[in-house]
Amino acid sequence: MQSNRLLLRPFIESDIESVFKGLSHPDIIKHYGVSFDSLEATKEQMNWFADLEKEGTGMWFAVCSFDNKTFYGAGGLNDLSKEHKKAEIGFWLLTDFWGKGIMTDAMPLICNYGFNKLGLHRIEGFVESDNTNCKNAMAKLDFQHEGTMKDCEIKNGEFISLDIYSKIKTE
After folding, report:
1. Is the N or C terminus of the chain more exposed, i.e. has fewer CB atoms within 10 Å?
2. Rounded CA gap, 170 and 150, in Å?
3. What are phi and psi of 120, to 5 degrees?
4. pLDDT tens digit string along 66-77?
5. Long-range contacts for 27-35 (Cβ within 8 Å, ≥24 apart)?
6. Strands 59-65 and 86-93, sheet pairing
7. How far apart are CA 117 and CA 128, in angstroms?
């Protein structure tokens, strides 16, 4: 998939170094569910990306420059429920590319893929309540804030709250 400046493509083996760079960076993993301390450990994430498509539970993409020379980050859909026609959206960017509108470009491509290729009716996002940048991005992309699940998960020994966002397919 592509926009006028981005290419979203399946992951390839050589992406592992960029994925490790992202998922070992303290500012990125602060709000992401996993982190890795070695290239070897990052294989687990690469396998997760591959298994999503293989098992029909979603699809994540490498988010790159249009010419495929620069890896920006990753985004996609997971926890896909065929029965309920919904999936969860997620993304992360390498810090060098924060604030450049990349996810504002990439997220509609991911949503269109979910609605048009995967047959979804609902795409939902669960955002840590203190992740202001992500909450702003969700609002800018016309995701509706549905509420807050207070103290619903434990992270680093502390309870955290999650804000729920959704986008419903419109005809």
Report:
1. C
2. 30
3. -75, 155
4. 999 999 999 999
5. 27/95, 28/92, 28/93, 28/94, 28/95, 31/127, 31/128, 31/131, 31/134, 32/92
6. unpaired
7. 28
Per-residue model confidence as pLDDT tens digits over 114-167: 999 999 999 999 999 998 888 888 998 999 999 999 999 998 899 999 999 999
DSSP 93-151: E-GGGTTSSHHHHHHHHHHHIIIIIS--SEEEEEEETT-HHHHHHHHHTTPEEEEEEEE
Q: What is the pTM (predicted TM-score) of this model? A: 0.91
| Cα 25 from Cα 23, distance rounded (Å) | 6
Residue 154 has a CB neighbour count (10 Å cut-off) of 9
Using CA atoms, how far residue 58 sits from 55, 61, 70, 108, 109, in Å, is: 8, 10, 24, 16, 14
Angle subtended at Cα 11 by Cα 138 and Cα 105, rounded to the nearest 5 degrees: 30
Q: CA 101, CA 167: separation in Å to the nearest integer?
A: 19
Q: What angle do CA 24, 52, 3 make, to 5 degrees?
A: 80
CB 163 within 8 A of CB 135: yes
Strand 86-93 with 122-128, pairing: parallel
